[in-house]
Design brief:
CATH architecture of chain A: Orthogonal Bundle
Distance between the termini of chain A: 37 Å
Strand content of chain A: 5-15%
Structural class of chain A: mainly alpha
Largest interface: A-B, 45 and 45 residues
CATH class of chain A: Mainly Alpha
Shape of chain A: globular
Order of helices and strands of chain A: HHHEHHEEHH
Oligomer: homodimer
Helix content of chain A: 55-70%
Number of helices of chain A: 7
CATH superfamily of chain A: Winged helix-like DNA-binding domain superfamily/Winged helix DNA-binding domain
Number of strands of chain A: 3
CATH topology of chain A: Arc Repressor Mutant, subunit A
Strand order of the largest sheet of chain A: 1-3-2
Chain lengths: 122, 122
DNA sequence: CTCATTACTTACATTTTATATAGTACCTAA
DNA sequence: TTAGGTACTATATAAAATGTAAGTAATGAG
């Protein structure tokens, strides 16, 4: 995560590609390691930070925070803080976040198909 | 690209996620910088190495080679070498590669929707 | 006062991915 | 003999993503 250098060739290439190709644009946004899985869980309703952490056994708090921040930045999820102690923060998909559902479903079914294919070749 | 360390936590996390979630599995395979764009071009028919390079103005030959190799490894594209001089190599989607079409289309339309949304908010 | 809980934050280290630059083999045509 | 096209390979380096380990604030329970 960290910052991206807006002077790097990599940044220029990503930007140029995203300008032309909506699929590359989309992939830049949801292409992270945990992004899709988080969205996948949130498709079934809002969740707290701690709940998400439990659903993603290997994620570190740092990574979860970073991913959630990125998703929030891209308006895919919304964040609601309740002024309680101990704190409570809930995450929920926005409409454009829910609109990812067909994408996730398409990826899921392709993934299964691809895995079956490779397994049958052994 | 280079090699991935099979002893790293990152590798373990990716593997574990991919085992459970077909969408994460799929994302690992087609999540690269240029992967989807290459597939997108190949959806309209087989292409030579040099043709692909022209379609992707900023890609280096090395990156194109690496991406093509990775796609070939994952059985998404096939590679045909013609014993000519100068050499000719053609790349074509396999059936499972063509099966990416709905995924790409879903990503495209989500990407456009998302971009429109953000633009309208300015 | 001390501890526990929750949702973080920070500093740093490591791993993975991407780019830059130069070179190779092959034959052909001039 | 020399130049040229095609599809690469090798090596080095930069950048980005991910992981580790520790610490923070607020407050209510004991």
């Amino acid at each position: 995560m960290s910052e991206i250098k807006e002077t790097s060739t990599n940044f220029a290439n990503k930007t140029a590609l995203a300008d032309e190709c909506p699929e590359a644009y989309a992939s830049n946004i949801i292409g992270g390691q945990w992004t899709l899985v988080i969205c996948s869980w949130l498709l079934s309703g809002k969740m707290r930070f701690g709940e998400l952490r439990k659903k993603l056994p290997n994620i570190t708090e740092r990574m979860l925070t970073l991913q959630l921040r990125k998703l929030e930045e891209h308006k895919i999820i919304s964040r609601t803080i309740y002024a309680e102690v101990p704190p409570r923060v809930e995450y929920e998909l926005t409409p454009i976040g829910y609109a990812l559902k067909p994408v996730i479903k398409a990826l899921e079914s392709w993934g299964e198909e691809h895995r079956d294919l490779l397994n049958n070749q052994l």
